[in-house]
Amino acid sequence: VQYGTRAKAVASYLSHYQLLPYARLTELFEDLFTLPLSEGTLFNITKVCYEKLEHYEFQVKQQLIHSPVVHFDESGIRVKKGLNWLHVASTETLTHYEMHKKRGIEAMETIGILPHFKGTAIHDHWKPYFQYVTSHGLCNAHHFRELIYHEEQYGQQWAKELRGCLLEIKREVESHKIKGDLKMPPSRQRYFERRYGRILKEGLKELPVIHQKKEATGEKKKRGKPKQHPSKNLWDRLHDFKQETLAFMYDFTASFTNNRAERDIRMIKSKQKVSGCFRSEEGGEMFLRTRGYISTARKNALNPLEALTNVFKGTPFIPNMAS
Asked: Model-level pTM?
């Protein structure tokens, strides 16, 4: 049986955008359209879409490599009941998903975006990102959650003051953006840098100390650094990565949070809640490429169903650097 481009696009739309599993899709086509599509036919439609999007994916990866700011994130994903990792690279107009058995450097090298990227990478402080020579910006939504926790759990007043400082910087950055400014005046940057440093310096006095137990005679000395209090670990990170924490202040194109990448990952997690794990690596890869295409189309104000119809016509949407 030969199915038209519209029928194939609708099947892909319902599977990859509305997240319907194949079994429910076959029922839907039979009930609504009296069109008996088997699960095997739906798989073949998905595979054709995946293959026709190969050039699109290559172009998107190239554009991400040359973008000034890209958001990166990763999250666990189940394939054949085993743990794999979903990696996302995201901008205002582009979304790229890729799956790998590893979370760190090996996966990033295989995906091939970060090794060539020279812009600002926004992420959640996953250490492997810092292996790449590029500018970094850290997610302050994560910092806020940790600062609130340490304020409430351990009574760290410096954490409250630092949250207030970051919020004030954010408001001032937004006011400059509204006026059309491209950067904050150097004098204001220096003011906030000093204030940030002063809060951390004063906060050092508040940090709880974990007293190390004296080793009994004859015991081997434990290797590694002495254990620190969790509040000191957070303090160290905010102190050592001050430049990256304040990246949004120095560069208005850098974001205050990494919410963009997290939003793009969220729908893939919803897919797993609806359909369970992917039954094969091939199935996962096919879903992710098409889902990334739909996400990119929507970011560029395109109707996803029309965008998918164009895929099956052989003319998929390919964004350009100016979009």
From this structure: 0.91
Q: What residues contact 36, with CB distance under 8 A and at least 6 apart?
A: 26, 29, 30
Contact between 13 and 25 under an 8 Å Cβ cutoff? The reply is: no
Q: What's the CA gap between 125 and 236, in Å, rounded?
A: 13
Question: Which residues make beta-bridge pairs with 174?
Answer: none
**Nearest alpha-carbon partner for 56 in 18, 94, 87:** 94
Q: Which amino acid is at 285?
A: E
* Residues 6 or more apart whose Cβ sits within 8 Å of residue 181: 252
Tell how far CA 270 is from the center of its chain: 15
pLDDT at 310 over 90: yes
* Alpha carbons 144 and 117: distance in angstroms, whole number: 28
Q: Give the position of tokens 């850098």.
A: 254
Query: Cα–Cα distance between 303 and 192 in angstroms, integer?
Result: 44
Compute how many other C-beta atoms are within 10 angstroms of the C-beta atom of residue 183.
13
List, in order, residues 6 or more apart from 224 with CB less than 8 Å away.
none
DSSP states of 3-44: --HHHHHHHHHHHHTS---HHHHHHHHHHHH-----HHHHHH
Question: Hey, CA dihedral for 317, 87, 67, 65, is it positive or negative?
Answer: negative
Distance CA 158, CA 147 (A): 9
Q: Is residue 78 within 8 Å of 278, Cβ to Cβ?
A: yes
In angstroms, the CA 141 to CA 75 distance is 17
Report the length, in residues, of the chain.
Answer: 323
Task: Tell me the HSE value of 158 on the side-chain side, using a 13 A CA sphere.
Answer: 20
Q: How far apart, in whole angstroms, are the C-alpha atoms of residue 162 and residue 157?
A: 9
Per-residue pLDDT tens digits for 33-67: 999 899 999 999 999 999 999 999 999 999 999 99
CA nearest to 166, candidates 181, 182, 152, 147 = 147
